[in-house]
Design goal:
With 132 residues, this protein is α/β, with parallel strands linked by helices. It has helices spanning 12-24, 35-45, 61-70, 88-96, 109-120, and strands spanning 4-8, 28-32, 49-52, 79-83, 101-104. The longest helix is centred in the N-terminal third of the chain and has 13 residues, at 12-24.
């Protein structure tokens, strides 16, 4: 079954670029330019992953993440922050808001895919080769 990803960013060009990258890798992608609509879509669709910008009109991405974590229906959906805010304090705030990973723009498509796949398949990393 195709993994479903919701992208939330108020920049149309960023949304289209990310949709293109992720759809080419076989993901089912939906997107929202508005935080309030994104929360509604997350509750209705229950995606497998949410990719979330921080700098958005009210509510900002941190508030959206907290709202997703507070609702039992969306509390376990992995959240990947994807934002231009790259200061350590911003990253810490992202994790404190409930983010599972944090990427700063711009990003190489291969790294985006690697992070997405890591969040969608966490068990694939649990079996480490034993040292010889």
């Amino acid at each position: 079954m195709q993994k479903r990803i919701l992208i939330v960013d108020d920049d149309f060009e960023t949304l289209k670029m990310m949709e293109f990258i992720l759809q080419r890798k076989g993901f089912a992608v939906s997107s929202e330019l508005n935080s309030t609509q994104a929360l509604e879509r997350a509750h209705a669709d229950k995606p497998d992953l949410v990719i979330l910008d921080v700098m958005m009109p009210d509510p900002d991405g941190f508030k959206v993440a907290r709202a997703l974590r507070e609702n039992p229906d969306t509390a376990n959906i992995p959240i990947l922050f994807f934002t231009a805010k790259g200061a350590v304090a911003d990253k810490l705030a992202g994790f404190q808001a409930g983010g599972d990973d944090y990427l700063t723009k711009p990003i190489h498509p291969a790294e985006l895919i690697a992070r997405v796949e890591s969040l969608l398949n966490p068990d694939s990393h649990s079996e480490k080769p034993s040292p010889t």
